[in-house]
Structure formats: C-alpha cells, structure tokens
Amino acid sequence: MNTRTARTDRPAGGAAKRPRLRLFPWVTALAIVGLVSLVPALGFLSLMQGGAGAGWLHFTESQIVAIRETGLLLAGVIVLAGSMGLVSAWLVSVYDFPLRRWLETALLLPLAFPTYLAAFVAVDLLDFYGPVQALWRWMIGAKTLRDYSFFETRSLAGAIIVMALVLFPYVYISCRLVFSHSGRNVIDAARLLGARGGRLFLAIGVPIAWPALAAGLALVVLEVINDIGATQHLGVSSFSVAISDLWLNRSDLPGAARLSGLLIIIVAAALFLARPKTHAHHAPTRNIGQPRRIRLGASGAALALLATLMPVLAGFVIPTAFLIWRAGQYAGSQNFDPEFLAAASSSLVFALTVAGAVMLLGALLTIAIRIAPRLRPAARVAAIGYAIPGTVLVLALFPVFRTVDGALARIGLPFILSGTFAAMSFALVVRFVGIGAGQAGLALRRLPASIDWVARIHGMKDWKLALRVHLPAMMPGLMLGGTLVFIDTIKELPATLLLRPLNFETLATRAYAQASAGTFEHAALESLGILVLSGAAALMLTRQS
Amino acid sequence: MMDRSPLQSRFLRRALLGGGLALAASAAMADEVNVYTYREPGLIKPLFDKFTAETGVKVNVVFAKSGLEERIQSEGANSPADMLITTGIANLRKAVGLGIAQPIKSAVLEKAMPPALRAADGSWYALSVRARVIYASKDRVKDAMLSYADLASPRFKGRFCIRDGRHEYNNALFAAAVVHWGEAKTEEWLKALRANLAKKPSGGDRDVAKDIAAGACDVGLGNTYYVGLMNADAQQKAISDQIRVIMPSFENGKTHVNVSGFVIAKHAKHKDQAIRLAEWLVGAEAQGMYGRQNFEYPVLAGAPVEPFIKSFGELKADDIPLEAVAGKAKTASELTDKVGFNLGPQS
Lengths: 545, 347
Prior knowledge:
The complex is a heterodimer of chains A (545) and B (347). With 545 residues, chain A is an all-alpha fold.
C-alpha cells in the first residue's frame, strides 16, 4: 500500500518543486508519536533492566510450551475467525436472502463480548451443570460424566472457538466495507462477465478482500495475545500466563518485561510480513447507486442464512439469553445495587473520553501524514501500544508517571498521576490510538492526492485543506475507529483495573471482581450492561457504513 | 454528597475543582482511610461498610488482581495508599521486600493472633486463614484420611483435578512442599500428581468441585471456603453436597494454610485510621463476618469457626513459617514448569 500512495502523492515527472519542509505536520506527528510510543517505550526499557538476567533467548520449558500453545491458539482463531468474518461479509454483501438486512447488523454484535466474559459464559453454559449437558443427559438417560462424554470447553479447542466467536466481527467489519463499497465495481464487473458462486468468491472476493482480511486479523491476533482471563480459565498455557508467572511467582519483573518485549517483536514481525500488498485493481472506485444483490434460490438462501445466522446465535444471542436467565436467577437473592448505575455511567464517560482523545490524535496524525507523506511510518509506530499486553503496559507507565511526578514536585506541585482519571485514560489512549489513526488513514487514502494539488494550486492553505477537505473525507474512518475504541474501552480490563482512582468502578471492573471470586453469575447484570453499551456502539457502526 | 449523581461525585470533583477547593475537601475528609486490595470487593465491602457505620471513618477502595505493590512504589511519597490488603503471604512478602510497607506496633494486633500469623517486626499481619484441602467425592472416595503425599498414589491415576499449577494458591502449596520435603522429593510428587490428572489444570477451585460432582474426577485440591460458599449458594448447593472435605497433612500431621493479610503503606497519610481499621478487622465482630460471609478461619485466637467449616474437622494449621513458604515460591514455580504440570495428564 505504501508504494502506491507514495507514488501518487508526488507530482508526476518529478519536475515539480518539492514542497518545503512544513513545520506543522512534523511537529504534530512527532509530538503524538513521542507521547503515545516513545514515552511508554522508555518506561518499557527501564522495566527490562536488572533481574535474573537469564538472557533474552533462554526459554524455560513452560515458555516453550507457551509459545507452542499460543501459536496453536492463534492459528486456530485466525482460521476460524478469518473464515467466519470473510464468508459472512461476502454473503450479506453479494447475495440476498431472508433476514439479510438484520444479519448485516447483527453480525457485529458478538464484538460486544469481552473474551474473558465469553469464556466464563461458555464454561457455565456447556459444563456438566449447564443446561446443554442437562438436556443431553435427559435425552440419553445418563447420570454422571462416567456415562457419556461431552465436548470439553476448558481446552485449546474450546478457547479457539470461544475467542473466534467473539472476535470474528473485526474481520467482518473490514471485509464488508470492501465488498459493499470500495470493491463493489470489481465484483459487479466480474458478475457481468459471468463469474458465479464459488468462483466469484475465490477468484474475486478473496483477493480484493485480502488487505481488509489482514487488517481485521491483525486486530484479532492482538486481542488473543493480550488476553489472560479467558485463556487461563480455559486452561490454555498462553504467553500472557507465562509472563505473569515470571512476574508474580518468580519475582522477575525484568524477565517478564523481556519476554513480552520478545512477544512484541514476534508480533510486529508477523504483522509486517502479513501486511497487505496492494495491487492496481484495488484502486478505490466510486460506485453508483445501490448494489444489486444476487437473489438466491431456496437451498442457496437456506445455506447462506445458516452460515450467517450461526455466528450470531453462538457469538451473541445464546450467551446473552443465558446471561439474562442467570441474572434472573440471582435477581431475587440480592437487591438492585445503586452502584450499578454509577458504574455504568463511569464506563460510558470513560469510554467516550478515550474514544474522543483517540479520534483527536488520530485525526491530527493522519492529516500530518497527508500533508507530509514522508511521515507515513509514524502511523505504524504510534500503533505499538496495542501490541503490549495491558498489564505490562501499565507497569511500563509507572516509571514514566514517577518521573513526571518528580518533576511536578520540584516545581511545587505535589501531585501523583497514577490513580487519576487522566492517567488511566492516557494508558488506554496509548493502547488504542493505533486503531483510530489506522482507520482514519485508510479512509483518507481513498481521497485522490490530486485533490490536494488542485486545492493548493487555487491557493488553499494547509489548515484550510485539512479542515475543509481532509477532515470530512476521513470522518467515516475516524468514526469507525472511535467506535471500535469505545467498545474496546468498555471491555478493557488490566489497565483500567490497575490504574483507576479509589472508589472508581466501571461495569468491567465490577464484573471482573465477581468473576475472579468464582461467581461471575452474580455480575450478570454488569455483564449485560457491558453488552448493552458496546452492543449499542456496534449497531452505530452499521449506521456509519 | 450521597445524593449527587455518580457522574458529579466521581468525575467532576476530580476534574473540575481547583486546587483550593481540593485542599479544603481533603481537610474535610480526614476521617478516611485509603485501601488498595487484592481481596474482591464482594467480601470486604460489607466489612468496610460496617466499620464505617461504627466509626464514621470512610474507607476508599481500589481492587486489582496484580501490580498494586508496583503502583504504590511508583506513587512514592505522595501515594494515597494507607493500607494494602493481600490474598496470600507472597504479596505481603513482596510488599515488604519492595520497601513500601512500614512496621507497626499494636498491642491489639499482637494480642489477637499468634506470632506465626504476623511478621516478627510488625511489617505485616494476617486477617484471615484458609486451608488448602482435598475435595473428595462422597460416593467414590471412602478414605477417612488422606495426606498430600497420598494424592500422588497410583490409585488416583486419572482421578485427580486441580486449577492451574501456577495460580498463587497452588504455588504456595507447592512451595510449602519444598520447605517440607526439599526440591527432589517435591519434584517427584508433582510428577506423580501430574500423572494422576484427569484433565488439564484449568478453571477455578469451584470448577474442581464441579468436576468431582460431575464424575470427571474423584479427588482435587481447593481452598476450604469455596465449599462453604457453594453450600450457601442455592444454585450450587447440590454440587457441594457431593463433596467431602478431607484435611490433608504433611508428615508433621498439619495442613497447609495461607493467609490474607495487610501491610501499612510506608507513606500512609492516615496511618492512625489504617491501624484502627486493622484492629477492627481482627476484632470479634469482623472475624465473625469473615467466617459467616466467606467461610474463612479467624486469626483471632479463641474466635469461633463457622459451623459448616467446623464440620470439616479440626484444622491443625501447618506451623512452618509462612515467610519460608513465600521464599520458595520461585522454586515451586520452576518445578511446576519442569514436570510440565500444566500440560495435563501424560498421553
């Protein structure tokens, strides 16, 4: 993608005068990157100092196991979430079948489930005492697990399915954008030329969706790697569990930091290698009018309905119904807690703050890059926070906060950053700014660079160009990024949990407190609150696109 | 203040009020104590509410799962933390090791509990005691007594369940085994335990109980209070009804225990109130609540044990020093790795 845009950004022939180095874009971009990448990176480096010093490449057996299990988990989730997201996006964009319009929206809803919550619900739903096995025992007349065998949810396979079911919408969102917008004309042309069914999907659909698929899967991969609650509950010896074992049981924080540093390098390398290579025919085109969908016959429609309905049922409807039922079971035993509403409004304000800040920084960074294309790598560097496991990120920010606190104290402001709303929000902005900047950048790239030249030829100043042309053009991407960040913030745990002010509870922290005591069902109400807030945001995503 | 919308009280006060007002506010709230805690709010909140009702001292709380020691350390001299409440000896020792705790002298605390449950210099004290015991199927396990070593016996092959071996509860038990038996014997024991596993270590202690009740395995290891909590939960009583608790022991005839406890932060601004809270927490009323609400053993000498927990039999708490156990956490973690404990039963 770099090569194409870099080429088109420059006036043809190379005869035109290179624009002078502009101060605004460089200062803005470097300030943002410094704030969200350099600052945590310095903290991270200081975290790695000292410790047992076992060396970077010395792995214990369990770490090798962790690498293998994380690898298998990732492979499984990539295949499952990738195919679910890709196929469902294809079906709802290209074909017409019953419930299609509803499904187009509903396929986003599983995103509302935090992975740890999905894991707890899945185990509760599918274990021996859950309704599924109870029904199965009743049907076959069994009494204990000795009489029959059943799928073990607490297993690698269970973890793959659970995580894929709630993470596939990342792939779905980005692929659907391609199928119903930018790639629309290519699909229509192929149809005119007679491509049908599987051939249309494999020869046209998959190649044009490839960059979007990779972008969606990158988010999935980072979510999986960051998870600790779900994998530990499901008995997967993931990398995050190994990191926390080093830190907590072996008191080796530097070692844990080095291990996560290695993880970041592996992930960054993998993402770099898998980055989409753009081909000429991906050049975005403007499609005119409503897309004409292929009307399916009865059997085709039934298959398409099944393929798109299943992920929605398994990833959202069934677990949510189960949660409501559980909430009802415990509703009688405890009074409605007024603090629930306080936590809900805290979640809302917090998520809006983080999403707003990410959108602001994302917009500034994207515009800076547009004006000075040589700054393009800045967008990638700014995204580094998403690759750092949440808890490690917070631990890396502590030394930073401490330094700032020290400086403040010297000028007579005895103040501490950690435990403030600002510090907590900052940590999440560091973590999620890449999403905002990434989506805004993708959107702005659809605007031909020639428009900028025309504007400049007519004497338009940079700031006016940014405000009147760039900002409106990237608004859809910015909103998409902001909404994703909103959902992620509602669900986020480790950084929120560890950095929050005294007495500050969000829905996620309350739900987690119960889950960690082994009684997540007591927090069914909080869990439903998380689903309502992030589900509402997910629904907004469809409006936007 | 209670009538204010949560938005106002949580955010705006922090975000909008200027320095002068903030100063006035902090002066007005001298009767408060700030607690960082690893104990879940579900348990400690009723205790704090009661304390506030009786004393008028407000308790401000932040709960997290890990990293609070690092947070206090980073906050330095200005840290608002007065007290850190932990779920195990390992965190207490870590807090002391990082230099974020201060030793305190309190006749009330010293009188309340035996020396084994507090640091010699007063840098940490226990608040409650839990034992890590055997959960056994009432139907399928007839042994009246089992030791920790017995769990490794080949007759339990394919019949043993446990949560992640790296979880702090298991790590502490394995560390206690290292103290009792030394590394070599503990490694053999862990290897045999792994060979006896019915399934991969996963879930929590409640899931171990569920697995036993469901017939997936016959014996498991778990903390005492989970059985009490399940017994008190209408939805889960049927599960705990099928579980028999056996008090296992090491060769000294005693059962592995761990403590939840606290340290007073080095830079505590409300030290007096924090000590007052600590002394209240080891008083008869609070200790009774620990038993009734969370089914833990009291630290207060002579305080009654909750009747259901008492029905498990008398607890003979292991008397090896808890700090020695915490000192072997790293070894225990390494051995858990070495035998591939979390890989589950050998195939």
